[in-house]
Structures are given as C-alpha cells and as structure tokens.
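Database export, one record per block. Field names are fixed; values are copied verbatim from the stored entry.
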Amino acid sequence: MIASSHLPDESTKAILFDCDGTLVDTMPIHRAVWNDLFLRYDFVITDEWWEEWANLPLLPMVQHAIADATPELADQLNVEAMEMYNEMLHMIEPLEHVIEVARHFHGKLPMAVVTGGYRDVVVPSLDAAGITHLFDFIVTADEVTHSKPAPDLYALAMRKLGAEPESCLVYEDSEIGMTSARGAGAGRIVDIRQWP
C-alpha cells in the first residue's frame, strides 16, 4: 500500500521518475561491472566510494579511480561497461512499489524517465523490466551538456512533457538527483528511500 503523501495530488500535472535505484535496481550490476574494470588498475570499489561516486558523471568517476585517466580511456571503459552490463540484464530487479505508481497513472498523467544514465544502457534496463511503454519520454545524459546534479535533465523533461515545473512530481533516490530536480523547480520530490 502506497502512502497518499507519496502519490500525485490534484496539483500534479506530470510525473518524472529517476531510473537506477528508483524504477529498477541496477546499481549492483553497475558496481560489479565497474569493479571488474577498475581492478585492472588495482582500484577496489568500497561501499563508501560507490556511495559518493556512483551517480556522478563518467569522467570524474573514472579519474577518481584512475588518476591519470584520459577522456578517451573513460569513453573506452564506458563502452566495455555497457557491453558487460547488457550481458547481465537478466539480473535486474524491478522496484515494484514505484513501478506501481507509473502503472496506475499511465495514460492519466504525462510521465517521463529522467536519468543521468546513457540511452544505450537505460532503455535495455527498462525493456528488461517490461515498463518502457509506460513513459512518454526517456530523457538521458546523452541529451544534455550537464547531467545531474545540474538541473538540465529535469528542465528538458519538463519542457518535453509540456508541464510547468511547479506542477511536476519527481521520484528520486539520490541527493544528486534531488538537487537536479530542485534546481529545475520541481513542485514536489519524493525520496523513495523514505518509503516503508
């Protein structure tokens, strides 16, 4: 049962969902992939490091693990990471308590996925969970210059949905994502980590 405080109200004109950690639990797969890649450089991911760096843009994350990493190396590792990730899609866990909201409001309110992930990874993740069709738009890091925590992704999604920021309800699971949504002027933000 979803608490009413977590649901859209009469002021809500559009709903925006983060992907990783909000709609689907992909983070264990991402961590396993990047741990394998970073082990080549004798870097081991700790819980604390992953908590701090996992949701940040690619280049700073890679350069924090591999001090002399070039943008070209980061891009090369990212291509490998996407290939490895796609081979593990069968392990994705849908987060049904959030997906239930999307299913209930599908066709009733405009909805978008707003993610700092890349389209080549995000769409297969949503496909694996069987939920891609629920959303009017999937807005990914490929479409903006500055990803989360900058407001650009949420601002773009709001424009695509034709919704005023203050009428948008956002579901997020990270401080970086919530900072992005706040910066774009979202009217309400639900931290799904606070759900019972």
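Remark 1: The chain has a mean pLDDT of 93.
Remark 2: The domain at 4-26+93-194 is CATH 3.40.50.1000 (Rossmann fold).
End of record.
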